[in-house]
Every structure is written in C-alpha cells, then in structure tokens.
Amino acid sequence: MDLGISGKTAIVCASSKGLGLGCAQALAAEGVNLVMNARGAEALEASAAAIRADHGVTVATVSGDITTEDVRAQVIEAAGGADILVNNAGGPPPGIWSDWSRDDFIAAFDANMLTPIALMQAVLPGMMGKGWGRIVNITSQSVKAPVPQLGLSNTARTGLTGFVAGTARQVADKGVTINNLLPGIHATDRADALDGPVAKGAGISLDEARARRAQTIPTRRYGTIEEFGAACAFLCSVHAGFIVGQNLLADGGATNATI
Q: How many CB atoms lie within 10 A of CB 93?
C-alpha cells in the first residue's frame, strides 16, 4: 500500500533507538524526509546515517533534551514547516506511590505531557494553513489500564491524552489529525529497564524475567520496533484522515479490555 506521504517532512522525537527509531525507519521507507532528535548525539548520528543509506531521504539531526525550549526551537526550525510530528519521550522511572515527590511529578509532566503539547502548539498553525497534517503521540497502554508501578507515567500520559481528545476535534476540519499510539512491552531498552528490577527481585536472569512477562501477553512475545513503526506510519498516511483523537493499543492484546 502506498501511504501517499513521500516527500513530506516529519519530526520524530527520541528517535535514535527504540520505538522512535522504528517510527523514523518506517516513515523514511515511505519517502518521508526526517528531522530526528535525541539526547545522545553519537547514537542519533549513527541512526540517521543508516536511514540515509537505506532509504535515500534527507535526514537532519538535532541532539539535545527536547524538554528544553531551545532544543524544541532548533527542531522546529530544522523541519521548516513539518507535515508530520511524532512525539516521543522516555518514560519516567518505576516505583510506588510513596516514592515520588512534587519534583518527580513535574519532571514527568514536562517530558510526557507539557513537551508534546508545546510541540503540537508549534506545528499546528502551519499544518492547518496547508490543510494537511499528522500528529502521533507515543504514549502508553497505561492510559487504558494503569500499570501500578508506573504511577508517574500513568499520570502524565493521561493528562496528554485529555489534551489530545479535545484538540484533535478542533483541528480535524483543517485536514489535521492527532492520534495516540499506545505501546505495550516491546523489545527495547525501556523493557530492559523494567525487567531488570523484576529479575533482581526474583533472583532470576533477565532472560527468565522476559520469558515470564511474555507469558502474560496473548501473543506470548514482546513487540518489535518495526511493527510499531508500521502502525505509526499508517496513522501518518493519507489513508488515516478519518481517524481522529483515537488511542490505538499496540500491546499484543495485553490490555484486557472490551473497548
């Protein structure tokens, strides 16, 4: 299927590795030019070089913390009028309700709610002016069913979901769609960060912790960044213009819900 987005320009945040990289690769495969951002310059440049070589698209890079106003401004300038925005940021650390201070919540809000909102506010006027745009926010399955040890993520990402729910319906008549893509566990560094404490607490290997978690997923496996990226690319396509303000689970069926 031709997604109809060749030649468009996409900002993909936190895209040097993991889910963000999967999205960048999938968009590049469709002929989309990229502005990639991540904090680690070395990994970012390596991923960008590989995408250029594999897909022949233009890839600009901006290394730095996307939660800062200066880096956001650099990303927006590098895009020169983005057609597509993929918001993504690493999740806050796990714990329990008594672990977190006000500062912990503010940091989570900044990374997983306020920064994506600021980027949407920056690109929406241009998208609306052109009569076309796609925004995909990578959030979490926790906005559908809370993960007890991820209280910071539960809180911040649910706030972002509320913002999107209203905003998506205000801009849809201008040809702009905003949707959220909700990952479950995927084979990424984030999975290792969550599985590591489980393994340590149970006195088992990391591989065994992964195997145990995989048995709780109907697919009996972790997701891949490639299939996640493909879902993102479809939501960014010309075929997704009637999908507005939705929360699409990509979790292998792990969230046990009827709706």
A: 17
Where do runs of H (alpha helix) occur along the chain? 18-29, 41-55, 69-79, 102-109, 115-130, 151-171, 189-202, 206-214, 225-235
- φ/ψ of 90, rounded to 5, equals -60, 145
How is residue 109 written in tokens? 């809000």
Nearest to 34 by CA among 49, 228, 181, 3: 49
pLDDT, one tens digit per residue, over 145-155 is 988 989 999 99
pLDDT tens, residue by residue, 208-254 = 999 999 999 999 999 999 999 999 999 999 999 999 999 999 999 99
Tokens of 26: 């999938």
How, if at all, do strands 33-38 and 133-138 pair?
unpaired
Angle separating helix axes 225-235 and 18-29, nearest 10 degrees:
60
- Return the amino acid letter for 150: L
* Percent of the residues in the chain that have a pLDDT greater than 70, as a whole number: 100
